[in-house]
Write the structure tokens for this entry.
Amino acid sequence: MLHNCLIVDDNELSQYDLENKLSYWPEFNLLGKVGSTTDAAEFLKNKKIDLIFLDLHLEGLQEKPFIKILEANKTQVVWLSGNKNHTDDALNYNLTDILVKPYTDNHFVKTMILVLKRFKSAFEIEAKLPHCLFVRSNKMLVKLPYADILYVEALSDYVIIHTKPKKYTVHSTMKVLEDVLPPSDFFVRITPTLLGLIKLKQ
């Protein structure tokens, strides 16, 4: 089942980035991109939207007619914000998560998993989601299955992910990868020449 999405953001670059990220999720169908709550309200009157990415800083967010439209459609909301301290305002919405700009690809993945869990049972999600890591390398979003990762090497503000086909240099830290990668498959190894996450043998 496809879930219809709408992006409401007055920043075209942000719209493009979200559109690109959503293209990796076949469960979702992007129906439109608008730059104001007025256009969003008109869109929601004519289309069934399951998920809306909503820029927190747009005018009209707190107006009751707009909130009622969201409630009537039972639309999940993912906020786009440059400020982490907006949890109190979120009570007016069917909020699923907040993406704080600039957000990472892996944070986006976690958000989409939360969205799917609200659409489906946790069992269905775990059975369907691929065991993989999303990274950005050479300005491209790359999907790396855990099974292909040999080890990860720390390099200052970057990490080098060695896989069976090739290696990827990613602007990230080892701490971030430690939090994302499952400890059942990876462990941290420190040697005189290497500080990295080493994949356990299958």
